[in-house]
Design goal:
Elements: H1 21-34, E1 39-46, E2 49-54, E3 60-66, H2 69-84, E4 93-94, E5 102-104, E6 107-113, H3 127-144, H4 160-178, H5 184-203, E7 212-215, E8 224-226, E9 232-234, E10 241-244, H6 246-256, H7 264-268, H8 280-287, H9 290-301, H10 308-320, H11 322-335
Helix pairs in contact: 4-5, 4-9, 5-8, 8-11, 9-10
């Protein structure tokens, strides 16, 4: 197949070499040298992730690049083990190329099955989605609890306290910029919540080691995929680590609370999360304003604080929801007294 015969779609992306048509052309040529079947189309989805379409029946696959061959092999092994252990709600890696791994311009590419998405996209806005996502996450934890010993030497131990300390330190460093957008009193309030949370987390002993599983580590809405037949899938295991299952639920709670108007009652209605609300360590973690710190640190790190499109949602999190968040923090203080 000549280049002129290829159909290439280049989506608008962040400034990135992978959004460049010349890169796509080189990648297409490389893939067609390696595959037994011809690639008809490449569509960039996000950094180092592409939708590829074969010339035969236009069958689609996902092509994903990793920074090292060991990281690619870990993902191939882990997803295969998930399937073998009974967790079918995720993708499988495919063997389409003669060379493995596919090494191209300092990235190592794996090919995954394409799960046709539903037009009814999964979001945390809907109550039924929030509950269904938790049920799927619980099923994932039950499965990875059986795999945790197998990956004891492959995966790092999850260290949330150290992560939050670093995030806290970065936020403090960025305050001179943040003060251009957020009044000093609100910033000081968030800092007081963070200090209270970290102080109590440091003084709290570890929870039951029997709850140790392989954490997903990134339970954002975009890592839950609704397929065209209505099945919900859990995807993207780049941040897996070994830790207490409560850490995934803590992150999930933090992600959905803005859609619950920071209502403790709304959170307690979720059956999977409800038992953790009696755990002081979980509540101390809920008090830490991790999303505020994460988003401001990212905004400043990427020098996007002059971009109103990027700043607006962070301001909504920080200022628009401040009153609700303050009430939520007061509720946590009462419950942990």
């Amino acid at each position: 197949m000549e280049w002129a015969e290829c159909q290439i779609i280049v989506m608008t992306m962040k400034t990135n070499v992978q959004g460049d048509a010349f890169f796509i052309k080189r990648l297409l040529s490389f893939l067609n040298d390696q595959f037994d079947i011809r690639i008809h189309r490449i569509m960039p989805l996000r950094n180092h992730v592409f939708l590829i379409e074969t010339a035969v029946n236009h069958k689609p696959y996902i092509l994903k690049g990793f920074s090292s061959p060991s990281k690619l092999r870990l993902q191939e092994m882990f997803t295969a083990d998930l399937k073998k252990a009974g967790f079918s709600n995720t993708y499988s890696f495919q063997a389409l190329a003669a060379q493995s791994p596919l090494s191209f311009e300092n990235r190592y590419y794996g090919i995954m099955e394409y799960i046709p998405p539903s037009t009814n996209t999964f979001t945390f806005l809907e109550r039924t989605n929030r509950a269904e996502g938790l049920t799927l996450l619980q099923k994932y934890h039950e499965t990875t609890g059986m795999l945790v010993n197998r990956y004891a030497t492959e995966l790092a131990q999850h260290q949330p306290l150290e992560k939050w300390k670093k995030r806290n330190a970065s936020f403090i460093k960025n305050i001179p910029v943040i003060e251009f957008f957020v009044q000093k009193e609100i910033i000081e309030e968030y800092m007081s919540w963070a200090n209270w949370s970290l102080e109590h987390l440091e003084a709290t002993p570890p929870s039951n080691p029997e709850s140790t599983i392989i954490l997903h580590g990134d339970v954002a809405h975009h890592n839950f995929l609704r397929s065209v037949d209505g099945t919900l899938y859990l995807i993207d295991f780049d941040l897996i680590s070994i830790g207490e299952q409560s850490q995934d639920y803590l992150q999930y709670a933090n992600r959905i609370l803005p859609f619950l108007d920071w209502s403790f009652e709304g959170l307690s209605e979720l059956e999977v999360i409800r038992p953790f609300l009696n755990d002081k360590k979980f509540l101390y973690g809920l008090a830490f304003p991790t999303d505020i710190f994460r988003e401001w640190n990212r905004l400043i790190r990427e020098r996007q604080y002059h971009n109103p499109v990027r700043v607006r949602p962070v301001m909504e999190l920080t200022v628009g929801q401040f009153a609700e968040r303050k009430s939520f923090f007061k509720e946590i203080r009462k419950l942990t007294m």
